[in-house]
Amino acid sequence: MQLYTGNKNYSSWSLRAWLLMTQAGIPFEEVKLRLDTDPSSVFKERLADVTPAGRVPVLVDDGFAVWDTLAIAEYLAETFPAQRLWPEATRDRARARSLCAEMHAGFGALRSHCGMNIEASLPEIGRRVLAEQPEVASDLARIDAMWSQQLAEHGGPFLFGERFTIPDAFFAPVCSRIRTYALPVSEPARRHVEHILSLPAMQAWTAEALAEHDFIEYDEPYRQKP
């Protein structure tokens, strides 16, 4: 299998698929492309060979391309049932899919105003955004409530108990955002963030992000190029 990804510092969608596969021990070859919106860029040209969507991540299995993180997660769950990527109980699986769908389609304010930027530390921006953008505060409150409920019901440290599952991968970029912007969350949510960020796979992703030293201006609304 090949997994096409973008810059580890910025590409939250790539992180979801990469973390899921790495944490689950699913072998793959990473094809890393520098993010670029220019239609004639190497990024777009390389992706055009594997997907009409023109976005990362893309999973390619023996020439068959799967794009969109939710489709990739479902494909992996069916291809590797022994990895138990979804929770086992029927209702837990339904809840897990509900959480992933909400993350997949929602929280637009948080995404827009607090883009993933692993190597940055922007606590002052976090305070300003929360003060000026009530939609971001609303998104954060919903995520905090969602996590707190799951952790209380299943005992943690992951959202569905002791096993890492697809929802944990889907919300991993939010954990990174909470750290970058010092966003305030409840104590259960804070412990969950720390646990996810301490995973060996997440640590490996972070280390590679820090080593990139690649400043992409359209992903940096709050900083000037050094």
Give the structure's gist in a few sentences.
Helices cover 55% and strands 7% of the residues. It has 226 residues and is α+β, with helices and mostly antiparallel strands. Strands 2-1-3-4 form a 4-stranded mixed β-sheet, covered by helices on one side.
Helices and strands, with pairings:
Elements: E1 2-5, H1 12-24, E2 29-32, H2 42-48, E3 58-61, E4 64-67, H3 69-79, H4 90-105, H5 108-113, H6 123-132, H7 134-154, H8 166-180, H9 187-198, H10 200-212
Parallel strand pairs: 1-2
Antiparallel strand pairs: 1-3, 3-4
Helix pairs in contact: 1-3, 1-8, 1-10, 4-8, 6-7, 8-9
How would you describe this protein?
- This protein has 226 residues and is of the alpha+beta class.
- It has 2 domains: 82 residues, Glutaredoxin (3-Layer(aba) Sandwich); 119 residues, Glutathione S-transferase Yfyf (Class Pi), Chain A, domain 2 (Up-down Bundle).
- 55% of the residues lie in helices and 7% in strands.
- The protein is built from 10 helices and 4 strands.
- The chain has a 4-stranded mixed β-sheet, covered by helices on one side.
- α1 packs parallel to α3, α4 crosses α8 and α6 packs across α7.
- The chain is globular.
- The model has no long low-confidence stretch (mean pLDDT 97).
